[in-house]
Amino acid sequence: MQFIDIIEELSRDFINAFNNRDFTKLESHLSIHFFIVSDNIQRINPAYPDNRISGASEVIQYWKQLVTLFPEFKFDPSEHEIENQGKNILYSGHLLNGKPYSARFTINEYAKFDCLIMSYPESI
To answer: Residue 124 falls within a domain, yes or no?
Structure first.
């Protein structure tokens, strides 16, 4: 299996777990040092003014808040582009509501996500 195939599989599993609200499976994809940066974080939880959350369990709590406030927030698994730039993987696609997003993430040697940087050119 080539690296891009691993990225495709991990991304598909991650998106399916998120869309199905399977937070246990989502957390199993995250390293213990995982952090997320997203332009939505402060909007969802003002306790994070720098739009960054560190720690897998803290990120899971944020995602639970996100989907409680926006239950329709789901990723469209059928449409995406992946570009491998060394340790950084660039991933772009659309939410099911048609709005675009882009993500940059890294995966460690254990096939766990170390970081995720999300950007939404349009409001969710």
So the answer is: no
